[in-house]
Amino acid sequence: MAGVSSRTSTADIQFAADGFRLKGTLHLPAADNPPVVIGCHGLLSDRNSPKQIALAEACTALGLAFFRFDHRGCGESAGRLEAVTSLEGRASDLLHAIRLMDSRPGLGKRIGLFGSSMGGAVCLRVASQRQVAAAVTFAAPVRSLPLKPPGRGPEASPELSRMASVLREEFELAGTLGRLRNILVIHGEADDLVPLSHAHEIFDHAGEPKRLLVQKGGDHLMGDATHQADFIREASLWLSNGLKHVGHRIDR
What we know:
- This protein has one domain (about 10-245): Alpha/Beta hydrolase fold, catalytic domain (Rossmann fold), CATH 3.40.50.
- The chain contains seven helices and eight strands, in the order E-E-E-H-E-H-H-E-H-E-H-E-H-E-H.
- It has helices spanning about 50-60, 80-85, 85-105, 120-130, 160-165, 195-205, 225-245, and strands spanning about 10-15, 20-30, 35-40, 65-70, 110-115, 135-140, 180-190, 205-215.
- An eight-stranded mixed beta sheet has the order 1-2-4-3-5-6-7-8, with helices on both faces.
- Helix 1 (about 50-60) crosses helix 7 (about 225-245) and helix 3 crosses helix 4 (about 120-130).
- The radius of gyration is 17 Å and the shape is globular.
């Protein structure tokens, strides 16, 4: 992209969603009117996820702006996690973030989405409502079932029990996957929290262009350094190509 250099900047931004004060960080490249990627973190995470920060930096190096924010009840945003967390609530947070970026001077009108785990489900939900220029998901669940342990016995890990206590409302996205397009689906082959079958389900139903990247032996947290490097490279390139291609615009 013309005008891109190695100089980048960041700015902390506050905005409102359904009465909640949310906080985010905008990464800006040294480019005029760059397209914007908006990132959604996982269920128990926040905007300072290392892989999201690394993706933001890779995107700005390619001339894209990147906005990562704390969902309601997370990080520096308002709300109590156990009381305010639902797929629809987080989808509303993302929609408000899209409107915020759309109204901010100096940014382009093309928007892409990235979501990890629960954040991936949020992106799937929003991308099925309004077309986005490009999307990337990692370890995204199609439904809440894998996040809800069958009981509180010894087979339920502390992480699963914590997720079950936070995510009180179930969700099902299977009926909306056919509305997706221009999506890169990344998933760990050995993910023991969200089965790999969810990635195949997303890919099988989404429209072209689409790509499925399975990380051999990969886990839900993407703990392998090689997988992390591959993710950053492939995700940033997919977003850059999708956002700079005139044929894919967000439906505003």
